[in-house]
Every structure is written in structure tokens, then in C-alpha cells.
Design a protein that fits this description.
This protein is mainly α. It has 16 helices and three strands. The structure holds acetyl coenzyme *A (ACO) and oxaloacetate ion.
């Protein structure tokens, strides 16, 4: 038995949800470029969960179900007062809040297909409310209830800021949600599938996935990119900053990918939005710094940017706090996690690989008093 480090190249499951073939990403056969340019996030949720695009009435039904389920149990809102909210990372708060949410769902452990589907609806609806309520409560503001007349993307920005977002903001945020929705067997989705393959519940699967997304080698990279842009500070500093990091053999966040070789097809959409939005805000230096970093890093390492790189300046231009970037990734990716959880349940087998043991050989037990 030999191990493949990081399971690189290992095919661990079949799936009908999304595919990456020759650097092309599709959701259920639809090219990501097409979906990003044309679809609402609600349509994409439906696509991932039902493996087909919705009719008008199917879309309306899902939209209504999401709207009806956005409110949080008061206990979940109250729990934000149990710790020092200003000191807590929002991803840790989200992970805990989702776990807590499971305690207030009397269907949490009901394993029927319909019950699991409705839990998916409830989680997809409530996660944006958790993120926006957390963000407001820590600023001493009251959470804002969603508006029935706004779509998913617009509602998120509205619940965060209390202001009705501009059409260009809604368009950009919707595109970002579509782009982050699913990505084959990435680390957090694999985590979710491993968890529920023990026939554990949907809340456990999503809680585990949030934990995996939090790390800077995965979803946490977008916040780290913004930290880097802040440190770089100006276009003039970008080249020396990157060359110095490379000299020290440090990783540059937002670059490289386990699967893509020529480039992440999602990055170009975010790059375009970054240019547009930073110009609109009179902060084009964030786009220009990013573009310079890309130029210098790619010339030196040959690694193109991934989805996390330009999403940082996009979210910054939308006025979003930098530590909310990864929770926003979760607001979108939960749609993919839930699709994979439902798919795993539908054809389940325990996921249990082997380890190639490399520890010591046979040893004799020595009582503690006799050990040197
Ligand atoms: C949504 C997402 O999860 S997208 C990914 C988000 N993560 C990041 O942006 C973090 C930065 N990137 C990385 O750490 C990696 O590219 C990963 C984690 C995305 C992929 O990792 P892996 O496939 O395991 O590649 P690994 O980390 O082994 O890198 C292979 C080589 O490229 C180098 N490399 C890869 N990415 C980077 C980077 N961003 N900066 C500098 N060097 C890099 C590694 O140092 C390594 O070099 P070596 O062979 O000389 O040691
Ligand atoms: O697929 C991966 O390894 C990481 C990624 O890009 C994603 O989850 O969107």
C-alpha cells in the first residue's frame, strides 16, 4: 500500500453535480461562463440540487421556500451574546451557529429524502442571515430582516448594510455566488461527504465543511489576499513585495490550484468585476495592485490566480468587512455542499480509506515506572 500525498489524482467518488475537465468547469453540464453571465444564484441552487434548470414555477417555489426560511431561531441570535463577538472570527462563529441551528431543528435526525431536502432549504436560507446578523451585532447594530421583493444576492447585501444595493452591486454579487457554488471534490465538499457517509445528519456535514473551508489553503485564502493587498499598499510596492516573499519561499495566497493547470476559469470573471467595481469606487489601485501581483507572480512561478485572488478586491469594493470574505464563500458553497450531501445519501457507502503505516515496528510494552 502506498499513499498519494494529499490524495492528489485520486478519484474518490462518482458525481453528477459538477466537473472539471481540461480546465473547464461545468455545473451539471452547463459551462460556468454561461451560468455566470446569465443565471441567478437561485437558479444555480436549483440546478445543483435537482440536476436540471428550473422552470419558472419551480424557481418561484424554491425562491418562496428560501424567503420563508431565512429567519433564525431567537436562541441562535441570542448565542452571539455568549462570547466576545468582537474577538471571534466570523468563520468560527458561523461553524458554531450552524451546529447550534441543528439543535433547534426537530427534523435534524430524520433521514427521509424529503426531510433532508427541506433541511437543505433551511440551511441555504439561514446561513446568509447568520453571517449578516453576526456582522451587524458585532457592530452594535440590530439584524435586518430580509425583504421578500429582493433576490438572494440583493437580500444578502441589504441585510448586511441596511441599504438597497445598486444594480451593479447585485450583478457582481450574484456572479460571485454563482462562481463559488460548487467545485467537484474540493476539500470542504469532500469533508461534507465523508461526514454524512457515516449516515450522520445534514447539520453535521455542513458544520464539518465550514471547518474545512476556513483554512487559508482553501476558502480562507480570499481574506489572506486582502491582507496582502493591504500590506502591499501601492502598485509601486507590488513587485518587490512578491519577489521578497518568493525569496523567502512563502506562498502567495490566491495562486495555484490542485486541479487547474492552465488557470482557474472563474478568475477572469472576478478580474473583470474587480476592474469595474474598483474604478466605480475610485479605488482602482486595488485592481492595479492585484494585476501587478499576478504579472510578477505568474512570470516567476508560472502559477495563475485562482477564484480567491480577485474575489478579494471585488468584495472589498462592495464595502464588505475583510473577515467576512470566507463566510461569504460559505453562503454560496453551502449550495454545493448540500447537493453533494443529498447525492451521498442517495447512493451511500461509508468512506474509509487506508493509511500507509510508517511508524515504528513491533515494540514491547514497558510499565510507566520502568521507562527511562
Ligand atoms: C477555493 C480554493 O480553495 S482555491 C485555493 C486557495 N488557496 C490558496 O490560494 C493558497 C495558496 N495556494 C496553495 O497553497 C496551493 O497552490 C494549493 C493549496 C491551492 C494547491 O496545493 P497543492 O496542489 O498541494 O500544491 P503544493 O502546495 O504542493 O504546491 C506545489 C508547488 O507549487 C508551489 N506553490 C503552489 N502554490 C503556490 C503559491 N500560491 N505560492 C507559492 N508557491 C506555490 C509550492 O510551493 C510547491 O513548490 P515545490 O514543489 O517547489 O515545493
Ligand atoms: O477545488 C478545489 O480544490 C478548491 C477550489 O477551487 C474550490 O473549492 O472552489
Amino acid at each position: 500500500m502506498t499513499a498519494t500525498r494529499g490524495l492528489e489524482g485520486v478519484v474518490a467518488t462518482t458525481s453528477s453535480i459538477s466537473s472539471i475537465i481540461d480546465d473547464t468547469l461545468t455545473y451539471v453540464g452547463y459551462n460556468i461562463d454561461d451560468l455566470t453571465n446569465n443565471a441567478t444564484f437561485e437558479e444555480v441552487i436549483y440546478l445543483l440540487w435537482h440536476l436540471k434548470l428550473p422552470t419558472k414555477s419551480e424557481l418561484q417555489e424554491l425562491t418562496d421556500q428560501l424567503a420563508e426560511n431565512m429567519a433564525l431561531p431567537q436562541e441562535v441570535l441570542d448565542h452571539f451574546k455568549m462570547y466576545n463577538i468582537k474577538e471571534v472570527h466570523p468563520m468560527a462563529a458561523l461553524r458554531s451557529a450552524v451546529s447550534l441551528l441543528g439543535l433547534y431543528d426537530d427534523q435534524a435526525d430524520v433521514m427521509e429524502e424529503e426531510a433532508n431536502y427541506m433541511k437543505a432549504v433551511r440551511l441555504q436560507a439561514k446561513i446568509p442571515t447568520i453571517v449578516t446578523s453576526f456582522a451587524r451585532i458585532r457592530n452594535g447594530q440590530e439584524p435586518i430582516a430580509p425583504r421578500k421583493d429582493l433576490g438572494f444576492a440583493a437580500n444578502f447585501l441589504y441585510m448586511l448594510t441596511g441599504k438597497e444595493p445598486e444594480p451593479i452591486e447585485i450583478e457582481a454579487f450574484n456572479k460571485a455566488l454563482v462562481l463559488h457554488a460548487d467545485h467537484e471534490l474540493n476539500a470542504s465538499t469532500f469533508t461534507a461527504r465523508v461526514c454524512v457517509a457515516t449516515l450522520s445528519d445534514v447539520y453535521s456535514g455542513v458544520t464539518a465543511a465550514i471547518g474545512a473551508l476556513k483554512g487559508p489553503l482553501h476558502g480562507g485564502a480570499n481574506e489572506q489576499v486582502m491582507k496582502m493587498l493591504t500590506e502591499v499598499g501601492s502598485v509601486e510596492n507590488a513587485e518587490s513585495y512578491i519577489l521578497d516573499k518568493l525569496e523567502k519561499k512563502e506562498k502567495i495566497m490566491g495562486f495555484g490550484h490542485r486541479v487547474y493547470r492552465q488557470g482557474d476559469p472563474r478568475a477572469k470573471h472576478l478580474k473583470e468585476m474587480s476592474k469595474k467595481l474598483t474604478e466605480l469606487r475610485g479605488e482602482s489601485k486595488y485592481y492595479e495592485m492585484s494585476a501587478k501581483i499576478e504579472e510578477v507572480f505568474t512570470a516567476n512561478k508560472g502559477l495563475p490566480p485562482n477564484v480567491d485572488f480577485y474575489s478579494a478586491s471585488v468584495y472589498h469594493s462592495l464595502g464588505i468587512d475583510h473577515d467576512l470574505f470566507t463566510p461569504i464563500f460559505a453562503v454560496s458553497r453551502v449550495s454545493g455542499w448540500l447537493a453533494h450531501i443529498l447525492e451521498q445519501y442517495s447512493n451511500n457507502r461509508l468512506i474509509r480509506p487506508r493509511a500507509d503505516y510508517i511508524g515504528p515496528g513491533k515494540q514491547e510494552y514497558v510499565p510507566v515506572d520502568e521507562r527511562g
